[in-house]
Amino acid sequence: MTRIHDMGGRFGDGPIPLKKIEGKIVDDEPVFKKHWHAKAFAITVASASVGKWSIDKSRFFRESLPPKDYAKFDYYEKWSSALINLLVERGLINKNDLIEITKKVKENNLKISQGTNEHPDVLKAKDVAITLGRGGPSAREVQNSPIFKIGQEVRTINYSPNKNVIGGHTRLPIYARGKKGKVILYHKGHVLPDASAHDLGDFPEHLYTVEFLSTELWGDKDGNKKDTICIDLWESYLI
Amino acid sequence: MTEKKNIGHNHDDHHNHSLLPEEPELRVRAIETLLLNKGIINSNTLNELIDTYENKIGPRNGAKVVAKAWVDQDYKKRLLENSTKAIEELSYTGRQGEHMVVVENTPKVHNVVVCTLCSCYPWPVLGIPPTWYKSDEYRSRTVREPRKILQEFGLELDLNIQVKVWDSTSEMRYLVLPMRPAGTELLTESELESLVTRNSMIGTGLPEMPK
């Protein structure tokens, strides 16, 4: 089984939401369409300095929103809602805080009293450029040699690869399970999301890009012999 | 990594958001107030982050990379061999571009990038993804019917051209190197740069033709 975010190849979604005037695409969308989008984005990025969750964990919290919420939420609603859940899980805020603040919102009584007691790890404005510029590389040394070689035919496993957590995070999309493909790139060792998302450690593995024929994934009717789909896959996803 | 946990029975962590107001704008204001008061975030930092992605980091960065590769064969070679390092030469590094892979369009192969599982996108060179890239429609359909998707973007590809879809499932970030348009031999690097559209670096468009 899988979760709602794992939507590659599903049926039922309509045309790409593009702004068109007289049939021509008009690409004039601002970076943040609404001010609260910008705020939700910035709050999420800034909070991670204190919360210290991995990118995999934050992805897991977004995809673990109740499916009904995930389906109807706007992109930044997913971000802000998952952030709240992360902050509670980390013990940085609690349910009472949420109930209290909601009461104040309803009374239109929000008061900001910043700076009284800043967390020692808070992201400061002067450190933004250097923090973003550094990023969070996922490359790691792996002791054992890679099992697969470029050009080699491989098959993906036919179940959720997360060995440690039932319903846990993984990056093998369901549309590519149990499929045959060819290794086309090798990226050395990288943090394994299936472990990192659950605070279990990095457990780095060799990472490959595997190319699948469109007919292998979608059959002869929907696919064609020409087009391919390339997917980054960790070694334990492959046999 | 020994005992198998069943998190399926612990829904609590993923429902706390419902304690906040439903209206997203109010929800964000509530969380912002709460985190500012607790000293977890700083309001100057929020402004700096927003300014960075509204004004400093965006697709013009990627356009510089592409234009440089068009005029400088040595750079192009470095870019295709070690994309992260070559992009770093132009000082574009870090968050969501830590591990870059540049894929080259040729007369035989057209590349297109998607992230079916979330919305992975190379921020240092393209900035924050547009709404359509994050939409369910693009995420679900691009791997199954890339040619129909490209048609919606106004791109009709010949059946002899292979469409290669890159689903960004890891921390590798993909940037498409589009083909240099014909008739641009006399243009300068900065004139070429202005022809490079964001969509041409995702694969859902082509560079503009010179006027």
Please provide a written account of the structure.
The complex is a heterodimer of chains A (239) and B (211). Chain A is an alpha+beta fold. Chain A has two domains: 31-134, Cyclin A, domain 1 (Orthogonal Bundle); 153-237, SH3 type barrels (Roll). Chain A has eight helices and seven strands. Chain A has helices at residues 35-51, 55-63, 67-72, 75-89, 95-106, 128-134, 193-196, 214-222, and strands at residues 20-21, 24-25, 153-155, 165-166, 180-190, 205-213, 228-234. In chain A, the strands form two sheets. A four-stranded antiparallel beta sheet of chain A has the order 3-5-6-7. In chain A, strands 1-2 form a two-stranded antiparallel ribbon. In chain A, α1 runs parallel beside α4 and α2 (55-63) packs across α4. The longest helix of chain A is centred in the first third of the chain and has 17 residues, at 35-51. The radius of gyration of chain A is 21 Å and the shape is globular. Chain A starts with 19 loop residues before the first strand and ends in a 5-residue tail after the last strand. Chain B has 211 residues and is of the alpha/beta class. Chain B has two domains: 11-55, no CATH class; 58-202, Nitrile hydratase alpha /Thiocyanate hydrolase gamma (Nitrile Hydratase, Chain A). Chain B is built from eleven helices and five strands, in the order βαααααββααααββαα. In chain B, the strands form two sheets. Chain B has a two-stranded parallel ribbon. Chain B has a two-stranded parallel ribbon with strand order 3-4. Chain B is globular and about 60 Å long. β7 (228-234) of chain A pairs parallel with β4 of chain B, so a sheet runs across the interface.
